[in-house]
Write a structure and sequence with these properties.
The protein is mainly α. The protein folds into two domains: 174 residues, no CATH class; 59 residues, no CATH class. Helix content is 58%, strand content 6%. The chain has a three-stranded antiparallel sheet with strand order 1-2-3, with no helix packed on it. Strand 2 and strand 3 form a beta hairpin. Helix 1 packs antiparallel against helix 6, helix 2 packs antiparallel against helix 3 and helix 3 runs antiparallel to helix 6. The protein is elongated.
Length: 253
């Protein structure tokens, strides 16, 4: 909540610092290990057209890049951010089903969640991200260090084991991504969208300049987002844009 309701929030909210998020770190690990898996276990004899290789690696990439774009769009559009994060979730769900199919096609069910093998993978914890001024370099160093924690599970080159480990990594990624989706939705509920913040900022500015008063409940103009004023016309009252005549937006009362 805004501690001072008379002080509007900034129009552009800060980004989520996505390179520090567990969801982003895990999605990157999934992408890297999916690339390694497909290169090693989807040779031409198994995937002659390369279609499965392409679809799995692109789904992994979509998970990472839509988290990136979604977190960047939080500053101006919570709705767009939620849509992009949801696309990331859907792409990773698709990839999860690909690994499940890989196992079932070989007559092997995935590890039970309460098995010793699964518990060992779930037990690996990510280190907190501690970056300096060179974010890209420090992020890469951190990501490689986290990848090294899971490297022993892939060391023997067993495709069925690798698919199981990736299923668990995807489960963890999707759980953290679900929490991120709820966080963005909660922030929107508390702070509103960019249009609402623009209106609040404009109202506050005009008041500070001694302009005509704007009602507390004045809606935002559907055309430009500026606060509206109650006006009177031949057919009764209506909301008209405070930027009139530059903007002729209006709303019914």
């Amino acid at each position: 909540m805004n501690p001072n309701k008379n002080t509007p929030l900034p129009i552009l909210l800060p980004s989520t610092g996505y390179k520090r998020l567990d969801a982003y770190i895990l999605a990157n690990l999934v992408q890297l290990e999916t690339l390694a898996f497909c290169r090693q276990h989807l040779p031409h004899s198994i995937d002659p057209c390369g279609r499965q290789f392409d679809q799995m690696t692109q789904a992994a990439r979509s998970g990472v890049k839509n988290i990136t774009e979604g977190c960047e769009r939080v500053a101006t559009s919570a709705q767009t951010a939620l849509k992009l994060l949801d696309v990331a979730k859907a792409s990773l769900c698709e990839l999860r089903d690909d690994f499940l199919t890989f196992l079932v096609d070989r007559g092997v069910p995935p590890w039970r969640a309460d098995s010793a093998e699964a518990k060992a993978v779930f037990a690996v914890r990510l280190d907190p991200a501690a970056y300096g001024s060179d974010i890209n370099h420090d992020f890469a160093v951190h990501l490689l260090a986290q990848r090294g924690k899971f490297a022993p599970f892939f060391a023997d080159g067993n495709p069925e084991k690798a698919a199981n480990v990736l299923l668990i990594l995807l489960t963890r990624t999707l759980a953290t991504l679900e929490r991120l989706l709820h966080r963005v939705a909660d922030d929107f509920t508390r702070n509103g969208g960019a249009t609402e913040r623009m209106t609040a900022a404009r109202v506050a500015y005009r008041r500070s300049q001694g302009g005509p008063p704007v009602p507390e409940d004045a809606p935002a103009c559907p055309e430009c987002g500026a606060p509206m004023r109650l006006r009177h016309g031949p057919y009764g009252e209506f909301w008209g844009c405070s930027a009139h005549p530059t903007c002729k937006g209006r709303r019914p009362v």
